[in-house]
Specification:
The protein is α/β, with parallel strands linked by helices. A 5-stranded parallel β-sheet has the order 2-1-3-4-5, with helices on both faces. Helix 1 runs parallel beside helix 5. The longest helix is centred in the first third of the chain and has 15 residues. InterPro entries: Flavoprotein-like_sf (IPR029039), FMN_Rdtase-like_dom (IPR005025), ISF_SsuE-like (IPR051796).
């Protein structure tokens, strides 16, 4: 049975190294019959979480803020797998991705928690100039534990300063194989 996969791409570059990992992951996932929806977050208007606790998971748009998260919420609600993709910025995810992840909290509010649990899984795709992924992997692993999502793994591609540096590296094939393994 095919899976519905949502990719939250937090890269500011549509054709950067993170996007290469996303592209090959998508090719692998689609080759296994899955449906993939990618959100390129840098091209969207997404405001930071206000911490107002005014969200409600049963609403069509669970957050009180009206921005492009309204496009993401329904896709995440219907998803089986949520992939977080980002370049490494100061040992963490990009601001674009962190903002979207923070805003997903609205799906945990209200009558029914539509985010935590529910049989979802996740994977992490990252590219970086360096190789200091320890802090972001720790954050990601804690997030998976909190959300009670199955952790499908990480593809962490270090040593990529310029656009295109990731091409031909083993992590590109790893991203493809990770996508293909989702069945």
């Amino acid at each position: 049975m095919s899976k519905k996969i949502v990719i939250l791409n937090g890269s500011p570059r549509k054709k950067g190294n993170t996007s290469t990992l996303v592209k090959t992951f998508t090719e692998g996932a689609e080759s296994s019959g899955n449906t993939v929806t990618e959100f390129f977050l840098d091209g969207m208007e997404i405001h930071g979480c206000k911490g107002c606790f005014g969200g409600h998971s049963s609403r069509e748009c669970p957050c009180v803020q009206k921005d492009d998260m309204a496009k993401i919420y329904p896709a995440v609600k219907e998803s089986d797998v949520v992939v977080l993709a980002s370049p490494l910025y100061y040992w963490n995810m990009s601001g674009q991705l962190r903002t979207a992840v923070d805003r997903l909290f609205a799906l945990e509010e209200g009558d029914g928690n539509l985010l935590r649990g529910n049989g979802r899984a996740s994977a992490l795709l990252m590219a970086a100039e360096g190789n200091g992924f320890e802090d972001v992997v720790l954050y990601y692993d804690h997030l998976m534990e909190h959300l009670r999502w199955e952790n499908l793994g990480h593809v962490l591609a270090g040593g990529n300063m310029d656009v295109g540096d990731v091409e031909g590296k083993p992590e590109v094939q790893e991203a493809y194989e990770l996508g293909k393994s989702i069945v």
